């Protein structure tokens, strides 16, 4: 708030409280009061019509003793009373604010950060209204957005650039193998639910419970019953490709278990048999 706005606010408070009016009667006292208020509430805006903030309305609420606050009976309004009214409103503005993408070059992190913090400071000080991108989408847009986002990250509708998928192939071989099958036109065995281990769609098959309290572990392959379910699903369609079914049966077979050859040692320290 500027000194002119504070002088107008104190004049309004003088119409509600005779103590303020008597304090402003002296020119020196009035100038000192306006200077103190300017330093205290410099970051508080006078009005923000788009967000519903009005310093004069906050002053009136102070004298209306809202919330059971009876301080106005004992003292006139002071700067900290206006700050106490502005604090919750500012917190609400920051909760509604969505950081816009800075116009600065992202390769310049210092300029990018300064612009981002400057936008937040402008909202916190009442110099700018909060950017609400979510509020700009109406009910119909919300439904369309939910429909588009429902497939992101799942199933065939997930989005990932081809070069990113190629770079991550070595870190997720199972997923890369599935994507290769789909690219070649071969059905994906994880598109159906496993009848044996009850694994859902897009979930790896799991082994049975092991001894010593160990849980189930994901398998690198799939159970034969899942392959049969996939073949049955392909056979239900009108356009059945026997070659794809054959390849699906071959490609979806679980790998053969590896047995590590371990040497058995005798108690006498003899050679392994």
Summarize the structure.
The chain is an all-alpha fold. Helices cover 47% and strands 1% of the residues.
Can you describe what's shown?
This protein has helices at 3-16, 18-23, 27-40, 55-63, 79-96, 109-124, 139-149, 162-167, 173-183, 224-236, 242-251; strands spanning 47-48, 53-54. The protein is an all-alpha fold. Strand 1 and strand 2 (53-54) form a beta hairpin. Helix 1 (3-16) runs parallel beside helix 4. The longest helix has 18 residues, at 79-96. The chain is elongated, with a radius of gyration of 35 Å.
List the helices and strands and how they pair.
Blueprint lengths: L2 H14 L1 H6 L3 H14 L6 E2 L4 E2 H9 L15 H18 L12 H16 L14 H11 L12 H6 L5 H11 L40 H13 L5 H10 L22
Antiparallel strand pairs: 1-2
Helix pairs in contact: 1-3, 1-4, 4-5
Strand order of the largest sheet: 1-2
Distance from first to last alpha carbon: 92 Å
Strand % is under 5%
Structural class: mainly alpha
Q: Could you state the order of secondary-structure elements as H and E?
A: HHHEEHHHHHHHH
Instruction: Give Rg in angstroms.
Output: 35 Å
Uncertain segments of ≥5 residues (pLDDT<50)? 254-261, 269-273
Average per-residue pLDDT, rounded, comes to 76
Shape category: elongated
What profile does the largest beta sheet have? 2 strands, antiparallel
Give the helix level as a range of percent.
40-55%
User: How many distinct helices?
Assistant: 11
DSSP E strands, number: 2
């Amino acid at each position: 708030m500027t000194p002119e706005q504070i002088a107008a606010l104190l004049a309004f408070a003088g119409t509600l409280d005779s103590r303020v009016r008597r304090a402003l009667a002296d020119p020196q006292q009035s100038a000192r009061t306006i200077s103190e208020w300017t330093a205290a509430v410099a970051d508080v805006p006078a009005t923000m019509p788009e967000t519903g903030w009005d310093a004069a309305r906050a002053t009136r609420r102070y004298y209306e003793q809202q919330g059971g606050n009876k301080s106005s009976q004992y003292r006139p309004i002071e700067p900290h009373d206006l700050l106490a009214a502005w604090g919750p409103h500012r917190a609400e503005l920051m909760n509604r604010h969505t950081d816009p993408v800075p116009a600065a070059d992202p390769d310049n992190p210092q300029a990018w950060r300064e612009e981002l913090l400057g936008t937040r400071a402008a909202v916190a000080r009442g110099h700018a209204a909060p950017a609400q991108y979510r509020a700009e989408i109406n009910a119909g847009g919300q439904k369309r957005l939910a429909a588009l986002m429902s497939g992101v990250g799942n199933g065939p509708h997930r989005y990932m650039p081809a070069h990113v998928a190629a770079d991550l192939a070595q870190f997720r071989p199972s997923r890369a193998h599935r994507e290769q099958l789909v690219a070649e036109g071969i059905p994906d065995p994880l598109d159906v639910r496993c009848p044996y281990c009850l694994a859902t769609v897009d979930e790896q098959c799991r082994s049975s419970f092991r001894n010593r309290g160990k849980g189930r572990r994901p398998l690198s392959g799939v159970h034969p019953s899942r392959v049969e379910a996939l073949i049955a699903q392909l056979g239900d369609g009108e356009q059945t490709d026997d070659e794809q079914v054959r390849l699906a049966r071959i490609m979806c077979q679980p790998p053969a278990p590896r047995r590590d050859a371990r040497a058995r040692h005798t108690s006498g320290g003899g050679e392994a048999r």
